[in-house]
Amino acid sequence: MVMNVQILNTTDYSKFKTIEGNREVDQPHVRQLAEEIALNDLTPYFPVLINEGWEIIDGQHRFSVCQQLGLPVYYLQVPGLDLTSVQRINTTSKRWTLRDYIKSYIQKGVEDYSVLLRFSERTGINFSISAALLMGLESIGGGARGNNDAQRVGSIIKEGRFKVSDRTHAEDMALLLKSLTGHTDFDPTKERSLVFALNRISKIERFDSDRLLGKLRDRNLKIDRQTTTRFYLIELERVYNHGSQIRVDLFTGEETRS
Known about the structure:
two-stranded antiparallel sheet, alpha+beta
């Protein structure tokens, strides 16, 4: 059966209606999507799905962005379409993962993505954190901020903008994290806030990783799990200065004698 599918567009946003029971609009996602669409507008190829009553069944985030940016809304009107139909499709469809995007760019011959894949698979550090380290980013925050930061790094990967700029430091960080295994009750490579606390102090001139590892090994100390990068800095400073007359402030790099 041949179907006559026609994608139309309009800037008359007042025509569109929300439908009860649809997902709430996620404003952080709208902001992220707006950045992506401003760089590369693919909305003509991903139309908003509406029914005969102009109710938005799928694509309310794309609609919100188009409205904010003053762009035409591309839409496909499907009589009888309801939320149940779209929910059934979304339940069975498989979205692209970061690994899918990375492999796609590798197939296109982008060497930076080959470096990212090998680094992540060898170290066990997830793609977002691996990319941030390889790009030389200072940190990815914890909590809600950290989730947004990770999403931005994810967008860089998806859009083909990932570039390796600090491979040597990333490798050093991976070795340091591996050395912490057995000195925590969790996998240090999976703890984003710990990774970037270490990333920060490793750039302090007076920081000596052998001193940190020596304290953990010789004094039989452990790094306790924390909730934020700041709290990990405090915890690492506790271990680093344990039993030492010369103390190093891991926030400032200054030394004091106790």
